[in-house]
Amino acid sequence: MIRFFKIMYFLSICFAFGLSTFAQNKKWSLDECINYAIEHNVQIKQYELEAQSAEINKQQNIGNFFPTINAEANHSWTISDQMNVTSLTTSVADSKTFQASNFGISIGVDIYGGMQNQNKLVKSRLALVAARYQVQKMKEDVALNVVNSYLQVLFNKELIKTNKVQLEFDQNQEVKTQELVNAGVVPAGDLLDVQATVAAANQRLIASQNEWVMAKLNLAQLLQIDDYENFDISDSDYEIKDELISSYTANEIKERAFESLTDIKTAEINVETAEKDVRIAQGAYHPKLRGFYNFGTNIYYQDRIVGQEILSSTSPIGYVEGTNQTVMQQNRMTVFGGPESFFTQFDNNKSSTFGLSLSIPIFNGMQVRNSVKLSKLALEQIQNEKEVAVLKLEQLVFKAYTDTESALKTFEASELTLNARERSLEYARERYAVGLINIFELNQNQNMYVAAQSDFLKSKYDYIFKTKILEYYFGIPLFKNE
């Protein structure tokens, strides 16, 4: 049994170590980075909360069409001086406490209110759509930032590979030059030049490694990953090919942008919302008609008169005219009993009231008039904002189109330059090998080739990113919406 637990403990350690190693060796793809950033971005969560609030607000406006039902109950104590009807002398007053309970239910429903409830409901639905557009826009902005940072990491990784290859070549050249110096074929100064070249290549490699670390840190922070030291992306190689987007004109891309992007849709919804605000403000000019029904009952807890008791004594009540004979009557005493039962009073004392309530606005300190004016001014402002949004999107699309074309030309030119520099370097190496040029001239060709490599990589990833932006304007999604 002990042996079994030892084996299980060993396997658990191995499994945990395997998970840790897997986590450290995980390579993040671009789609994984985008989805992770969207899922953990705080601003996106804030906009999602606003969308949830808009949904609740819509439900509240739907509730305005339902009748209002309220129940109430109260119990009161009243202390007052009352004449003692049980006393034969009417001048006696006692302090008494009376208790009573009231129960009621009221129902009210809006029949007409200037279409304000209808316009409020439509406005809340528009606000919900606008809030969802804001969430989508924020996700797209985060995705674009991730794409840019991801491509920057790829650029620096490729630059490191290029600088490593160049450093290895320079180190091999240093060894060969050392052999030639030892054989007396080339002067010792050539060795110093080669060593300086090796040092410069090593410096470029260190700089590119530092830039790669910073680019990786920037991407990890964008994804809100703390363990950036073990964070790395997959070695994806984005080849430049004939993009489908290049077959469309700037106007065609602009039209697609107006149809697909949330910027113009949000601006249009804001205009519709402002129009509803005007309608809501104007609805205050209209009369309001409301139906109501009230049901109530009362319960009293004081003693009640249940009859009279005839006493043996008498008392005079007057005289007979002419004879002055005294007229006597039998004395009586009021008999009290306890209050009726709760449910008996509940049934006997109930009452119902129903009817219509009409409210007609006549003068309200010009509040409605000013409210309508303010809502109309707000509508004009939002209409202007929509025009600005249209012009801004047009400018962005044409700029993205021009930038993409320029980036493609720059990439093609850098590719031609790199090929030419590569052939020139090969030729310079052949000439140096037979002594036709010195080491200084060889290093010049090599430095120009290294610069051409760097320019080629920069132009490549710059074109890829600008193409992604143009595709985004064209309506090609940056990520899959769940």
| CATH superfamily (homologous) name of the domain at 28-66 and 115-285 and 367-474 | Outer membrane efflux proteins (OEP)
CATH architectural label of the domain at 28-66 and 115-285 and 367-474: Up-down Bundle
User: If you compute it from the alpha carbons, what radius of gyration comes out, rounded to the nearest whole angstrom?
Assistant: 46 Å
Q: Oligomeric form of this entry? A: single chain
Q: Could you give the count of β-strands?
A: 6
Secondary-structure class: alpha+beta
Strand order in the sheet with the most strands = 1-2-3-6
| Helix fraction by DSSP (H/I, runs of at least 4) | 55-70%
Please state roughly what percent of the residues sit in beta strands, choosing from under 5%, 5-15%, 15-25%, 25-35%, 35-45% or over 45%.
15-25%
Span of the ends, CA to CA: 50 Å
- Can you tell me the CATH topology of the domain at 28-66 and 115-285 and 367-474? Outer membrane efflux proteins (OEP)
Q: How would you portray this structure in words?
A:
The protein is α+β, with helices and mostly antiparallel strands and 482 residues long. It has a domain at 28-66 and 115-285 and 367-474: Outer membrane efflux proteins (OEP), CATH 1.20.1600.10. Helices cover 63% and strands 18% of the residues. It has helices at 2-25, 30-40, 42-63, 116-183, 188-222, 250-260, 262-282, 342-348, 367-433, 439-474; strands at 68-83, 93-112, 288-300, 304-319, 326-337, 351-359. A hairpin with a 6-residue loop joins strand 4 (304-319) and strand 5. Helix 4 packs antiparallel against helix 10 (439-474), helix 6 (250-260) packs across helix 9 and helix 9 (367-433) runs antiparallel to helix 10 (439-474). The chain starts with a helix and ends in an 8-residue tail after the last helix. Mean pLDDT is 85; it is low at 1-24. This is Outer membrane protein. It is found in: Cell outer membrane. Belongs to the outer membrane factor (OMF) (TC 1.B.17) family. GO terms for molecular function: efflux transmembrane transporter activity; porin activity.
